[in-house]
Amino acid sequence: MLVVVGAIVLIGANLVILYIAGNRYPSHGLGRIALYFVAPFQDAVSVAIRFSRGTWDNYFALASAARENTRLKQSLNQAVARNSQWREVELSNIRLRQLLDFKTTIISQSVAAEIVGRDPSSWYQAVIINKGSADGIRKGLPVVVPEGIAGQVTDVSGHYAKVMLIIDRNSAVDALVQRTRARGIIKGEVTGRCRFKYVMRKEEVAVGDKIVASGLDGVFPKGMAIGDVTGVVKRTSEIFQEVTVTPHVDFEKLEEVLVVLIPPAPDFAEKQ
Amino acid sequence: MTYGYYIVVGIGLILFQTAVIPGIPVLDTLFDFVGLFVIYLGFYRPAREALPAVVILGLLADNLSGAPFMLYITAYLWVFFGVRVLSLILQVSLRFRTALIVSGGVLIENLVFVFAFVLLGAGTHSPAAATGTVILQLAWAFVLGPILVLGFRGAHGIWDRLIGQTAGIGRSEAK
Fold this sequence. Notes:
Number of helices of chain B: 6
Largest sheet of chain B: none
Strand content of chain A: 25-35%
Mean pLDDT of chain B: 84
Low-confidence stretches of chain A: 266-272
Strand order of the largest sheet of chain A: 1-2-5-4-3-12
Shape of chain B: globular
Oligomer: heterodimer
Distance between the termini of chain B: 22 Å
Number of domains of chain B: 1
Strand content of chain B: under 5%
Order of helices and strands of chain B: HHHHHH
Low-confidence stretches of chain B: none
Largest interface: A-B, 50 and 41 residues
């Protein structure tokens, strides 16, 4: 009897601790110990693996390099001709951009980082990158790749940072359907896909529609690609429709990312 | 000396789990290797000696994971005590005893995670979608788990002998 009561008390206490701890990011020192002590080793192991893989790939690549070289020389001749035409287009593009007073592109305000470690669990989706506060990285900054949004910085040490990917179940991105401007929240799923939540049933969403960031969360730049709609279920009894989104980013093969150095919304930063 | 073994193996397993395995897609469905080490600690080592190691391993895993803070510490403590209870319940003569205890430990860890999913307001789809992952992990644990746990035990013995010899040489040189 005593054991049962003890177990119930223990489970109850455990639930309370997890509930409290789970509702906020670990902004205290305890939450960063591994970023200081383990991440450098992760970095070294990742570099060693990349080097070995590169050496292995290069060795096998040599065999087909000669054939490819001939083919590439032919392509190069064609490309040189096309390049001179595009140079003209590029120059006119620069003039037009200046005319429209375009802001600096995202790429010039970002820091490139390599992924050195991944989440030890398959239940959550976070990665460790090899850039930290010394490189201007702060908690809350958006992380992107050319294909679209990858995640958000959730913890930072001097030279490393933890990034929560958008396929993590704790992640949330305010988003729009590009075609119809229907608004909702992109949430991660265990399956590696995302769910586009809180989209009213009356809104028009179809398979193949592109989902982009709305910019209203004050974190992700407006218009950044997120993914494509791959499933829509409209139930008559529900207010919202069920929309499944496949991200553009291949998170399995993610190796490098860009951390966008734009300030997050003030209230978000304060909540950390 | 024993703590030296725990530190080397623990950090080695964390590095293997976070930096090596992600590059090998086939191994993605494997169980948590650090969790397996906790199972070894719960099965073979005295609580007073192993508990600090369990808490520190949980803390490190919590730091590197996107999971709510303290989830890994919680999960590892439940695994540690669960394995100790299982080793008392299951008879020594039972066939596949080690495999059952290891699978039990992996199941406890996964149950804590599923529980956290539900408790902390995950989508209703998440636990169902994760069932396949849990089954795969249990299958791997049943087959590979006992071999690895015995490997940890063997390596611990070798470590103790090597350290003992080194200490012995040091003492005799001092004399």
